[in-house]
Specification:
By secondary structure, the chain is of the alpha/beta class. The protein has 11 helices and 8 strands. Helix 4 (67-78) crosses helix 5, helix 5 (92-103) runs parallel beside helix 6 (116-125) and helix 8 (144-158) packs parallel to helix 9. Bound molecules: erythose-4-phosphate.
């Protein structure tokens, strides 16, 4: 399973890269706004900076919601760097745009996916990645991880190439469950990645090893 970080923070992207486990980045308009990035040229420049840090795929989301606007914006984003993946919302015009990008060799990430039916449509349109939002499904008391399982089963039966990118991940447990459910990629905040590191027995064990070493070498 590939690991993407879900942020537009250059510091956090660099921090995750330094762990040596980073395969890519996903962003969205809210994450860009959180970093205070606004205005067309600043946004484009910020994507260039992210692509300079990361070798793997970087999802850059279109703002347009009409077909022509998405195509124009997506082409501009894809031209920034070879590792840019154009992120397109799961709406009617979005599916048309994904089909267009597929035909023209531009890779896509279909975002805001909340059902298996949407997942089938995105795969038929040729999306490179599909982003089901696990945490937001859980937020309405539905089964976010069940959705990943259902899509993984359908994609395996149908032989779709679209990669399942488990998104809206909130904690390290979600990452483990996504791996079990058959996600190809997980995109998560840095806090969830760090959450994977921690276990009280690791801390206690290390403390004891170091104390014994100090005693023996006093
Ligand atoms: C996906 O690519 C989105 O950026 C993301 O995972 C949204 O997650 P949220 O529900 O934490 O905003």
């Amino acid at each position: 399973m590939k690991f993407f970080i879900d942020t537009a923070s250059l510091t956090q992207i660099q921090e995750a890269k330094d762990l040596g486990i980073l395969d890519g980045v996903t962003t969205n308009p809210s994450l860009m706004a959180k970093e205070g990035i606004s205005g067309d040229s600043n946004i484009l420049n910020h994507y260039r900076l992210i692509c300079d840090i990361v070798d793997g795929d970087v999802s850059a989301e279109v703002i347009a919601t009409d077909f022509e606007g998405m195509v124009e914006e997506g082409r501009r984003l894809a031209g920034l760097a070879p590792n840019i993946v154009v992120k397109v919302p799961m709406i009617k015009e979005g599916i048309k745009a994904i089909s267009y990008f597929t035909e023209h060799g531009i890779r896509t990430n279909c975002t805001l996916v909340f059902s298996a039916a949407q997942a089938i449509l995105a795969a038929k349109a040729g999306a490179t990645y599909l982003s089901p939002f696990v945490g937001r499904v859980d937020d309405i008391n539905w089964d976010g991880m069940g959705l990943i399982r259902e899509i993984a089963e359908i994609y395996a039966i149908q032989g779709y190439d679209t990669e399942i990118l488990a998104a809206s991940i909130r904690n390290s447990r979600h990452i483990v469950e996504a791996a079990k459910a058959g996600a190809d990629v997980v995109t998560c905040p840095l806090s969830a990645i760090y959450g994977m590191l921690s276990h009280p027995l690791t801390d206690l064990g290390l403390e004891k090893f170091l104390a014994d070493h100090r005693k023996a070498n006093a």
